[in-house]
Amino acid sequence: MTSRVLKAMLDAGFIYREDSDGYRLSDAEALVYTGNTTWRITWAGRRAALSAAQWRDLTERVDASGAFTTKVHWVTRNGLAELGLAEYRDDQGAVQPDDGGSGVHGPRFQAFRTELGCRVAQLAEADEFK
Fold first, then answer.
1. Closest Cα partner for 41 from 125, 116, 124, 122?
2. CA angle 123–128–130, rounded 5-degree value
3. In angstroms, rounded to a whole number, what is the distance separating the alpha carbons of residues 46 and 106?
4. Measuring CA to CA, which of 7, 15, 86, 104 is 20 to 30 A from 37?
5. Digit-coded pLDDT (tens) for 76-111
6. Count of Cβ atoms closer than 10 Å to residue 76 Cβ
7. DSSP H stretches of helix in 1-128
8. Cα-flanking dihedrals φ and ψ of residue 118, to 5°?
9. pLDDT at residue 58, as a whole number
């Protein structure tokens, strides 16, 4: 990733960087730091990575048990699962790698919002995202 893109993401508050001791670096320090650390994505960055449909479904189309409603399209469910915001579960509640559909028959497993998905969805309550 170019330094220009990294700077834009830092300026927007989508990412940050820590030094090797776990101290959060300033934006200027983060751009020049050469230690062995990774970039971290913020909650705002996670929100920004979602399409409008993914955000709507993550925040509005989930029942009390955490299951996505039937209004959520399979493409959106799969996209959320790839981001770790949703997971598929069988009837016993065991997490499955995908929806279990064969292409001929529909999905066998139900999609649920993950704990991470719940935390990202809570951004809807923050004033900055209304």
1. 116
2. 75
3. 29
4. 86
5. 999 999 999 999 999 999 999 999 988 788 889 999
6. 22
7. 3-12, 27-32, 43-48, 52-60, 74-82, 115-121
8. -65, -45
9. 95
